[in-house]
Amino acid sequence: MAPAGARVAMILPAREHFAPHAAGAISLVVRRFCALTPGAVVMGAPRARTFEGVEYQPVRGFASTLRALRRLAPDVVEVHQQPRLAMMLAVALPGRRVSLFLHNDPVTMRGLKTRFGRRLALSLLHRVVCVSEFLAARYRTGLSGAGPAVLPNPLSLAELPPRAPQRRKTLLFVGRITADKAPDVFIAACALTLPHLPGWTARMIGGDRFGPDSPETAYVTSMRAEAARAGVAFEGPRPHAEVLAAMAEAAIVVVPSRWDEPFGLTALEALASGAALITTGQGGLREVAGEAALFVAPGDAEATAAAILSLATDEAARATLAQAGLAQAARFETASLADRLEALRPALH
Predict the structure, then answer these.
(1) Residue 261 is part of a domain; what is its CATH number?
(2) Cβ atoms within 10 Å of 280's Cβ, excluding its own
(3) Angle 147-153-159 (CA atoms, 0-180°, nearest 5)?
(4) Using CA atoms, how far apart are residues 269 and 326, in angstroms rounded to an integer?
(5) pLDDT band at 209 (very low <50, low <70, confident <90, very high)
(6) Does residue 232 share a domain with residue 205?
(7) How many folded domains does the chain comprise?
(8) Residue 343 clears pLDDT 90, i.e. is over it
(9) Domain that holds residue 67
(10) 181 and 134, same structural domain?
């Protein structure tokens, strides 16, 4: 929470939708941060719909954002995923405390690709905050001395749908349908396992992007066809509430990412929903899952299939892993991160 009476502005990337039907991971995290910050204002691109109960200020570009900040006069400005904007605002608003929150690999981002850029950000900004130790280590590449702070993405457990008392015998993939997320591995693993698992089904939720306007890319089309051949239901993108409802009843969730996940919010939601989790542990996924998942090598469909079979044929093992997952997820409860968030914000006098 911000100090009493402080005004906090949270600035979203331009492409982010701040609404239930199309919110991505960053918007969901910002909305949860708002629950810890009475009077917070979220700033982002003009949108027809936004989350209810949160003040939303439409802006477009640096000049528009600067004008809005001068008018709103917040004490704290938290810029998500936009290094150059954060540094420009820190220079233009010397009386404001500007922090940068990073949700992706900093060394791939404009403004932070060089050691000079990363040092400059640390010197200009009140804080640089990464959502995982993995990202913080990437930020420190080639640097010495103090680096960024770490604040994991929060999850508000009370907002999750009730967990099904009897889990469905379902294998579930949730995520963007891109090569990095390895939907092809999930489909191949299902093709290997479903013939040996009578009564089990498999489903996939996701598109190339979040929201109903996600394009039907060539890769999405190919995965849709592969899923059909494997007997996997390919459902396309769905609102976040429907995703959580699917997780609340699925017995097994598979997060087979090839790339180094900056955090792994889908894995965290699976743990909190009471599903048994199989994942690769790439990037921040190991921090998220701890000891509460079965880990497989990225890109290895046969290992993923073996993990699926081991859990699908052992109800006790699924239950044990699911209980461990619930305990792990509790560490990321939004309310429990309040003190850590408050410590990252400046003391105002």
Answers:
(1) 3.40.50.2000
(2) 29
(3) 165
(4) 10
(5) confident
(6) yes
(7) 2
(8) no
(9) 8-154+333-344
(10) no
